[in-house]
Fold this sequence. Notes:
This protein has helices spanning about 5-20, 25-55, 65-75, 80-95, 120-130, 150-155, 160-170, 185-190, 190-195, 225-230, 240-250, 255-260, 270-290, 305-310, 315-335; strands at about 105-110, 140-145, 175-180, 200, 205-210, 215-220, 265, 295, 340-345, 350-360. By secondary structure, the protein is an alpha/beta fold. The radius of gyration is 27 Å and the shape is globular.
Amino acid sequence: MAHPWLTRLLILGIFIGIASAKPSLGWALVIGLGCYVVGMLLWSWMSQRKRNASANRMQTLLFPINQADLAFQIKEAVAGQDEAADAVAQTVAIALARPKRTQPVGVFCLAGPPGVGKSYFVQVVATILSKMGVFPAESFLFVDMTRHDKNSLFGDKSEDGELVRHLRAYPNSVVLLDEFEKAPPDVQNGFLIPWNDGLLDAPASGEKLPLCNTLFFLTTNAAYGALCDSLASGQKTDDQRNQALKNALAQEILSPIVSRIHQIFVFHPLTDMNLAKAVAGMLQEYVRSFDLEIERIEPESILDIVSKHEESGSRDARTISEIIQSSWGEELRRLTLNNAHKIAVAIDCENTQFKILKTKRH
């Protein structure tokens, strides 16, 4: 905006011009002055609205979390990843108790081969935090980092990217950046300032979106061997071990980005029972996607199915779950048409039986 005195001198000059001008020129000056005043008022109103919106988004989310309960619920749903469950629960509980934080709630990296439950772990965390009332159910964002360039993810001066659009709508979010190591260097570098300062630039509007209520997870299939070697190197303290893991991960992900990660967890191939638990959890989530409640699927009931797929070379929980789901879809659709609300499932290698325990009220 121009200096206030210059603006006043401009207006005074226009009035003098109007007073001494011909009628047609005077009317033109009056109309021009009116457009200028309306434009300035509109600009002022929009600027104030943007400032108010930013101020509202800057409100730090404070939410009392029972750390032990959160860790327990994660472990119940995800098998074999107790260390990650405990650390994530602790970080989230501490962060949500700090009213003056400016950085993200947490930035975690889950590393390991495909099919060991990395993405599923994040989905479980998001679901539990949603049920606790911390984040809205629709605030979870899955980002396939292999499909984005800098503009499509962050945006440019003409249009916001996917991440900016989502975090403007849902500042309180769990964001999963899948296969982060495959993102181009400029995309990886795009997270350097946001994770360091807690602010995300929105190029199209010029806003800076606060990330103090956002929880980030990265997943990666890279450097698994080097990460395992680091774990086996006999580091004595958690800090030493975490630094060794960061050094190994920096072989695949830009080092400045790795330095902003709070903690790295290595997910190893699952035992038969833990694989069965992972598949059981995925199946329960699949049933819930039909808006059906389901009694707990006991992992023991699908051990035989897991073993059968293992013999054919599949140790991927997601693949096994999807194979089973493909045989369930039509029956679950039929149950929804029959107004089912809660069901029980009996599973064996030969067939699966569904039983309606409760129907929906009209």
